[in-house]
Predict the 3D structure of the following.
Amino acid sequence: MRASGLTDIGLHRQENQDTFTVAETPAHLLAVVCDGMGGQRGGKTASSLAVDTYMEQLRTMLKEDMAPQQLRELSSFCVAQANTAVHRRALEDPDCQGMGTTLVSAIVYQGGAVISNIGDSRAYLIRAGEIRRITHDHSVVEHLVESGDITAEEARTHPNRNLITRALGPESSMPCDTYEMTLEDGDLLLLCTDGLVVAATDEEICRAVCSADDLNEGLERLIALARQHGAPDNVTAVLLKNR
């Protein structure tokens, strides 16, 4: 298993409020990506605190022999701890009032992965030249797509595309979604913030990754793709390969 990540401020932001990290244990590959919101200071604080708290809790409690359902429960617990940390900081620090962050994470083990998400940062599976979204956006436009009011293509440019219905921090508790999936040799998992998906289609993302010789080149192609399309937001992507 291999992993790499890359982040870019984009073309229109004054600060990069995305945060990510990847880590490896003897039995697992770990990754988490967060996209902060809430003012110049609050957004970066929220995303950094969420990533640090999630990963710290995960590495403390993770055991090599955990079953997939145990990993789902552990990831949900770590997301809850990250929410508590962001919420408390927002209450204690006036400069951080109202801050929040999205989160998407992956725990990859032999033959499979557990994915967690809250907000509109996404996870994709790329297999044999095809891409499939794993996560469900917690957003206004996702609801509109599901109800048939707009198309997925219209959602990318909808004026309310930045309105999310779940985030870490604003509330004292907030549930995340978790997914369990099997992995085949050569599969790629992509974790990314919405700065990538509002700039590029899933098909463009898939082509950029599949045409690359390695993970780092794939990430560079994704950032370049977003910038070619105007990169209206910070862009962060993490690629994990099952080998």
Summary: The two ends are 5 Å apart (CA to CA). The longest strand covers residues 29-37. The helical segments are 39-61, 68-92, 140-146, 152-155, 194-197, 202-210, 215-228.
